[in-house]
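User: My advisor asked me to double-check a structure prediction for SPFH domain-containing protein before group meeting. I don't want to rely on an old file, so could you generate it fresh from this sequence?
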Amino acid sequence: MSLGLVVVPEGRAAVIERLGKFRVVLGPGRHFVAPFADAVRARVDLGDQILSAPPRAVETGDGREVLIGFEVVFAVTDPRLATYEISNPAIAIDQLTTTALRQEASLTTAERAVIAPGDLHRTVWTVLHDTTGRWGIVTRELKLEVRPPAAPGTPSTAQEWY
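Assistant: Sure, here is a fresh prediction for SPFH domain-containing protein from the sequence you gave:
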């Protein structure tokens, strides 16, 4: 911030604090703020963001493992909540999705997880949608890749996204 001028690019927002307390969210454009009293707390990207996680081994309820990867498309809808409710949205969404997948997979069999991943998808989607809404974030899409682990020495090329 120079001489009280804050420039916010298109597709972004700036969360402004005055003397350490939330003051306002600024949209795109040039804005004058009080020098030395106001500070930019965060610059938030309002566009769609994609979080991808490679397949990870997850144990199912029958003691077997499946590989589950995911891709989440999300966007910040409320910069104030996204700044103050959660410190790093991408890490939080990754951990939330991984935890929900592991919990749900532990309640099903490996065969069911691979054949009918729609059940996993519905449950994880509900958890994501409900939780991220409180953070000022909307989850637009969730894709899951569920497959059995490849036999040793056998390359696995089958990938299905749901």
